[in-house]
Design goal:
By secondary structure, the chain is an all-alpha fold. The chain has 6 helices and 2 strands. The protein starts with a helix and ends in a 14-residue tail after the last helix.
Length: 139
Amino acid sequence: MTPSAPGITWVLVYRTEKYKRLKAEVEKQSKKLEKKKETITESAGRQQKKKIGKKDSTSFDGRVVAKLPFTPISYIQGLSHRNLLGEDFTDCSFIFLYILCTMSIRQNIQKMLGLAPSRAATKQAGGFLGPPPQAAKFS
């Protein structure tokens, strides 16, 4: 990144009214969500957490959260353009971005933190689509 890149970004993005308005809205929604999380008791736990999770994702319904640098193939367009108005298929919905991030980043983070199972354990367990483990043969 060149030294002028942050300045250009500030001029083209951070100082615009649209960016400031969206940032204020995100902060307001985050505060509401945090207040709701604080009020949840342990007894109400699971149901309330599910409702908050739904509220968190529905706040992005109908909003373009990213602009794809390509037009997705036809059978993926339904997911990438879900709940968005218009015919610009390079607009990306929240759920599509979430799925992409989960698929691509999750495993790498698990490996870095040492939370992923080792290759030996994975080979030994077989896996869902892999062949069943060999049964020991007794004579």
